[in-house]
Design a protein that fits this description.
The chain starts with 14 loop residues before the first strand and ends in an 11-residue tail after the last strand. The protein contains 2 helices and 5 strands; from the N terminus they run E-E-H-E-H-E-E. By secondary structure, the protein is α+β, with helices and mostly antiparallel strands. The protein binds the ligand Nc1nc2c(c(=O)[nH]1)N=C([C@H](O)[C@H](O)COP(=O)(O)OP(=O)(O)OP(=O)(O)O)CN2 and zinc ion. This is 6-carboxy-5,6,7,8-tetrahydropterin synthase.
Length: 149
């Protein structure tokens, strides 16, 4: 489906898994300075989720690829991102559905899911492409290992 080499995330783990997926969604950026983006419009978002860890689960997986897809694709596909009121808000620029914020929120959703697994791998990078010419990379951990939340 998607065949692209992504910038790599630095991490100390033995295993690294990458899951590509896409979802179709509409959004608007509720800011006058966003120009045309303040009007409702749609994208086919391309996502690459990077998960890393040292331990595998009872299936020999870091995490099941399909679980990662279900978590993100099933939630956002064919939706208006702004309608996800638990995640996005018109009142807070850090909760507008910009590429930056969507990438961070995907990282948070994946991290929350992984924290509940037995082997507890970590989400180390989200690559989110909004248009053929625009993408954002979000890395939950700084180079020194500090997580930004
Ligand atoms: N830093 C950000 N800038 C912009 C965002 C964003 O999320 N973060 N979003 C938009 C718009 O939503 C738009 O969908 C994407 O903008 P843009 O890349 O300009 O889209 P084009 O397809 O028109 O790009 P061209 O390369 O000019 O064809 C805007 N900015
Ligand atoms: Zn847009």
């Amino acid at each position: 489906m998607i065949q692209q080499i992504y910038p790599s995330a630095a991490h100390p783990f033995r295993y690294e898994l990458n899951k590509d997926m896409q979802f179709a969604a509409a959004h608007y950026v509720p800011s006058e300075s966003a120009g045309a983006c303040s009007r409702v419009h749609g994208h086919t978002y391309f996502v690459n989720v990077t998960v890393a860890g040292d331990e595998l689960d009872e299936s020999g997986f870091l995490v099941n690829f399909s679980q990662i897809k279900k978590l993100i694709h099933n939630r956002f596909d064919h939706s208006l991102l702004n309608d996800h009121s638990a995640l996005f808000s018109d009142e807070d620029p850090n909760r507008y559905p910009t590429t930056e914020n969507v990438a961070r929120i995907i990282a948070e959703l994946v991290s929350d899911f992984l924290a509940q697994t037995v082997n507890k791998p970590q989400c180390v990078q989200i690559f989110l492409r909004e248009t053929p010419t625009s993408y954002v990379i979000y890395r939950p951990y700084a180079a020194g290992g500090n997580r930004h939340e």
